[in-house]
Amino acid sequence: MPIQDTPEEWPVTATTTPFTGNKTSVRTDEVEMPDGSRVKRDYQVHPGSVAVLALDQDDRVLVLRQYRHPVRQRLWEIPAGLLDVPGENPLHAAQRELYEEAHVKAEDWRVLIDLYTSPGGCDEAVRIFLAREISVAEGERFEVSEEEADMELARVSLEELVRGALAGELHNNCLVTGALALRAALSGDGIDALRPADASWPARPFDA
């Protein structure tokens, strides 16, 4: 039997939404267990996200440093953002985020890895892309505000990111997962074996 996740859905006998925010909400489902009992499960409903691990001509990763209030830390991250429109092509969203957060464009795109950030309490699905052959985008920079207003940008070697993740110095899930996934790809079948940028994504189906 192959080791892979499979779709399954237990019956939901009742559902409520006790909180609705600007981008996410909280849902309470009454779920019927296999033995017939019923339990309540609370979880965050999330539109989904994309992230971009962008490599420059020297194989350095483009990273940014941003304040994250829930954890009270300024974290090093890779460009990322929400899927704002239901059914939005995740590649288009990733290209937008790379432009808005780093004012960069890329010619070569691959799917690096897909993940659920916290499946026990949130339905957020994230697709991390690998972007190569990057260059400065045309036009004016996107106007940023709030936490993004004082973001720091840097270019760091993959080896340093992997070292920092294993040392407990870097914590952002997309940065850590993306760096380790790229290291695994380079140590395995190589970048050419990665999925194409338009690969299907059952967790967040999208229009072509």
TrEMBL record:
GO terms for molecular function: hydrolase activity. PROSITE patterns: NUDIX. Residues 26-36 have a biased composition (Basic and acidic residues). Keywords: Hydrolase. Residues 44-178 form the Nudix hydrolase domain. Pfam families: NUDIX (PF00293). SUPFAM superfamilies: Nudix. It comes from the Bacteria. Residues 13-25 have a biased composition (Polar residues). Its EC number is 3.6.-.-. Residues 1-36 are annotated as: Disordered. PANTHER family: ADP-RIBOSE PYROPHOSPHATASE, UDP/ADP-SUGAR PYROPHOSPHATASE. This is NUDIX hydrolase. It comes from Streptomyces asiaticus subsp. ignotus.
